[in-house]
Structure prediction request, 368 residues.
Amino acid sequence: MRTLAFLLASAAVSFAAPKIEIGSINGAAFRIDVPENWNGGLVVYCHGYAGTPGKFKDSDPLRVLQVFVDQGYALAQSGYAAGGWAVEQAATDTENLRRYFVEKYGKPKETFITGHSMGGFLTMMLMETHPTAYDAALPLCGPLASTDLFMARGAFDSYVLFNYYFPGVLPEPTKIPANFANNKELQTKIEQALEGAPEKAASLRKFHDSNLKSNKDLTGTTAFIAYMIKELNERAGGNPFDNRNVIYNGTLDDNKTNSEIARYAADPKAEAYLRSYYTPNGRITNPMLAIHTSYDPLVPVWIPNTYNTTVELTGSSNLYVQQFVKHDGHCNIAADEIATGFNELREWKSKGTRPHGGEVPKAVSGNN
Prediction:
């Protein structure tokens, strides 16, 4: 069996404290930061959805990640070997990086995992699939629900309804061309259509479970969904979404809409792929503190709310807490709020002090 040291393709390592190591494992770029005042702990970070694999420079980490290094923790992050909804690759790449860290730097005294958006989803997934690897988790703005549920009943249904209201603006969801891109031209085209039909635009904003506040939010969300569906079709090898049994409501005319809206059958293999990556089971054995914004146009709060039910059904609800911050926007969680949440998670892990649900507490002196 090959060791991770053998799998390491390239690395530029600085042994002077603080250490920054940048390299690649099986085609996945990685970065490791070890602070001068390293306390022996590790934070593994999972990044969010991106069209291409992530790359790293030797500049300082983003402020929202620097908070972990400032508290004395080493920070390890993979860029994943693939872009898009790369949950399959990202889970393997993240676990390979964690094992590489242990092999090179020694077993950490404690290991936390965190991530934004899709990275928050991965945080949840890895807590379930690798229960002995991580002592606690901090998913941030993550869609903590079954992939086929929130993408089909959220993203796909809204896309189909958009095409019903505005035919010809976007391609059919099963015929999105390979060169389709989420760019300024696409967003301008969507926004102009929305502005030209205020009643339909208002209906679409309301249809989204986050009750989108503006056409700008609807434009950005729709453009992202269109690109994501295109990428998922390619990744899964077919259309993974089925709306033949969906009864649409909250439209301008529900009876007319349900009679006329396009219906699509899922490709069974593609549908199975989406469920495999990933359907949460709620079986967590260590603390998980999730943080979400009170208004998220891309990942509405109903999605992470479903994880409460999932953990309750497995008897793990005592290990899960969800908090919110009073901000609009996807992943608009400030660095000091992340630091506060991380402090609470550390107290929970080390002393058994379970945080309260609700708003993230105001930062206090010493949360840096």
Summary: The two ends are 42 Å apart (CA to CA).
